[in-house]
Every structure is written in C-alpha cells, then in structure tokens.
C-alpha cells in the first residue's frame, strides 16, 4: 500500500512557524493519528551564564513548542476519540546534569504525565519516551564527547523506535527502553537526591564540549 508524505518546514524556535504546525495538526480534513514531539538540540550554556540566548531558544523549542503541539494534537484527537502523543524526553530528566537540559527534560516528562491525566478515558494516550544514550549523530554534531560512556549503555535507534511505538500503543505513560535502563532509572529514583546530584556532577565533568556549534537537532 502506498504512502503519502507531506513536508512542512518549520523552525520551532519561531512562534509563527509553531502556529503553522498547530493549524495543520488541528485540520479535521487531514487527521494526524500519532504526534512525535522530537525536536531538540544539545545545550552548552551554563545555567548561570549572563547570556540567556541559548536557554531562550531551548525553552521555545523543547518546552513551549512541545506544549503547543501537544495541546493542539490533544484537542484534535480528543474530538475524534483516538490518537497517540509521544513526547521525547530523556533519562537526563531523572538526574541533574548541567546546562539546563536535565531540567527541561524533567519538565517534558512531567508535562506528559499531566496531559495523560487530562486525556484519561478519551481514547488519546500520551507517552514520555525517556531514552539514554542512543547511536545517532546527535552527540557528534553537538560536539559532546562520547568518551567514558560504557558500550553497554548505548541503544540502537531502530530498536528504540519499535519499543517506543509499542509502549505508546499500550498506553504506557513513561517509556524507558531496555531492561538495563529501567533498572538504572529505578535505582536513581530510590537514591537520595544528594547522591543523584553527586553522580550528575561526576558525569558532567567527564564530558568535554568542542568549540563547534552549540545546537544540534535530534
């Protein structure tokens, strides 16, 4: 069976572009059954930097647009009584890494849980996908060192996608792929927060950033 592909270029850091995508998602003549909020980029700015440009862009792309597109899909899907919303979060949201990425991903996970509660019983499900390190070009393009990350922590992208879609179909709200990451995040959730912060500091200090671009799309 053939497939029709529709391409809509949009910069999610620009609110006018986000509004265009919102309008498309709400079009009843072209219903969207599955929304995947996956736009994002690596952050190098420190939380205490005077220049907030990087953080402002991060909030527009990884917070505001996730809210706007998720809300638009929720309205359209709820009216039809079915649909799947997948917000790509991260296991980084369970720890306290530097640069603000962890806090943003923690928000994505919390937002997904809250939206899932709002849509409970409507036929629309919301899933926060929380992967760990995945074999993609993300780290290379972001200039983030992959040294020191054990090989067993890396995930295959295709397997990750299959697991995410399966969890979304089952209506799972928090999707943590693979048993090893489920175990690791289960441990993290039960550790004292002071210990989690100490581990986060150790991981952050072991990763060096190149002098290249400070942003990269996922």
UniProtKB/TrEMBL annotation:
Keywords: NADP, Oxidoreductase. Gene3D superfamilies: NAD(P)-binding Rossmann-like Domain (3.40.50.720). It holds the Pfam family adh_short. InterPro entries: NAD(P)-bd_dom_sf (IPR036291), SDR_fam (IPR002347). GO terms for molecular function: oxidoreductase activity. It comes from the Bacteria. Belongs to the short-chain dehydrogenases/reductases (SDR) family. This is SDR family NAD(P)-dependent oxidoreductase. It comes from Pseudolysinimonas yzui.
């Amino acid at each position: 069976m053939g497939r029709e592909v529709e391409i809509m270029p949009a910069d999610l850091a620009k609110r006018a572009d986000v509004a265009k995508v919102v309008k498309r998602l709400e079009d009843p003549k072209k219903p969207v059954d599955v929304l995947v909020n996956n736009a994002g980029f690596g952050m190098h700015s420190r939380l205490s930097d005077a220049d907030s440009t990087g953080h402002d862009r991060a909030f527009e792309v990884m917070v505001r647009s996730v809210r706007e597109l998720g809300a638009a899909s929720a309205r359209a899907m709820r009216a039809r009584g079915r649909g799947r919303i997948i917000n790509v979060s991260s296991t980084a949201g369970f720890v306290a890494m530097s640069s603000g990425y962890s806090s943003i991903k923690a928000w994505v996970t919390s937002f997904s849980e809250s939206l899932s509660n709002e849509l409970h019983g409507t036929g629309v499900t919301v899933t926060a996908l929380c992967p760990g390190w995945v074999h993609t070009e993300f780290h290379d393009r972001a200039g983030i060192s992959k040294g020191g990350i054990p090989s067993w922590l890396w995930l295959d992208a295709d397997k990750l996608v299959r697991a995410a879609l399966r969890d979304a179909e089952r209506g799972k709200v928090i999707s943590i792929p693979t048993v090893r990451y489920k175990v690791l995040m289960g441990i993290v959730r039960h550790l004292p927060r002071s210990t989690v912060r100490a581990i986060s500091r150790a991981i952050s200090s072991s990763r060096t950033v190149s002098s290249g671009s400070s942003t990269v799309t996922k």
